[in-house]
Design brief:
The chain is an alpha/beta fold. It has a single domain, classed as 3-Layer(aba) Sandwich (Rossmann fold), CATH 3.40.50. Helices cover 33% and strands 29% of the residues. The chain has a six-stranded mixed β-sheet with strand order 6-7-8-3-9-10, sandwiched between helices. Strands 2-1-4-5 form a four-stranded antiparallel β-sheet, with helices on one face. Strand 7, helix 6 and strand 8 form a beta-alpha-beta unit. Helix 3 packs across helix 4, helix 3 runs parallel beside helix 5 and helix 5 runs parallel beside helix 6. The radius of gyration is 18 Å and the shape is globular. The termini are far apart.
Length: 238
């Protein structure tokens, strides 16, 4: 794998059993992603977007072909090694936020760091930095129920970014947000991409997300039908 390509997908196929047969969710995917990309896999429901992100994120494995992420072959990882890859190197942002309601904003963001061997003072600084990035340093003691939907998603971004992962996978991150909050969230992620050189890969069919992408990959029936770089001059667009 080239050093610049931190994700390499080769002839990737994913099948799921259904009834007496099978459903082919991904059908011969060949893609590569470099460090610092801001890319999106775009397509309708059922096109294979989430399945693709799940394999990149080591939450699932290929049926055929290869998926290499940060030099590791996903299909060859043990459960423990896959968990270590996720814990140490990957961040996840979901449409449903997945915050722990009984914990504060600070505790929700801190949670991934508890899985790592990090000293308490370093953990505290990492959480405060992450909350500062998303503009929620003043809400660290609040509970999720006290936040708006946009604020909850910003907490989810902070949680994904707190360990400064090389790759962030965002599955329909604006699906439950209005237009104003969606643009705020996307601008936050775009800024983090620029400032930290983190690779962001989105799964989406939301036009609000698509206009922010620097690379747009169209997926239809589990196949890549187009892959193009996008003009990003819209940085001030609302």
């Amino acid at each position: 794998m080239e050093n610049s390509k931190i994700i390499l997908l080769e002839r990737l196929i994913k099948r799921f059993p259904i009834g007496g047969g099978e459903f082919v969710a991904l059908n011969g995917i060949d893609l590569a992603f470099g460090k610092g990309e801001f890319a999106g896999v775009v397509g309708p429901s059922g096109s294979g977007k989430t399945t693709l992100l799940n394999i990149i994120g080591s939450l699932d494995t290929p049926s055929e072909g290869n998926a290499t992420v940060l030099g590791r072959s996903i299909g060859d990882l043990s459960h423990r090694d896959a968990a270590r890859l996720r814990n140490e190197h990957l961040g996840f942002i979901f449409q449903t936020f997945n915050l722990l309601p009984v914990y504060s904003v600070y505790e929700n963001v801190e949670f991934p760091l508890l899985l790592l061997k990090m000293e308490a003072k370093d953990r505290k600084q990492a959480v405060l930095d992450a909350l500062e990035w998303v503009g929620l340093a003043d809400r660290q003691k609040s509970r999720p129920a006290q936040l708006s939907g946009g604020e909850c998603q910003r907490v989810a971004i902070a949680r994904a970014m707190v360990k400064r992962p090389e790759i962030v996978l965002a599955d329909e991150p604006t699906a439950n947000l209005d237009a104003e909050n969606s643009h705020h969230i996307l601008q936050t992620m775009e800024n983090l991409n620029k400032d930290l050189d983190t690779t962001f890969i989105f799964s989406t069919h939301d036009e609000k997300v698509i206009q922010y992408l620097h690379r747009k990959i169209d997926l239809v029936d589990g196949k890549v039908v187009s892959d193009e770089r996008v003009d990003t001059k819209r940085s001030t667009q609302k």
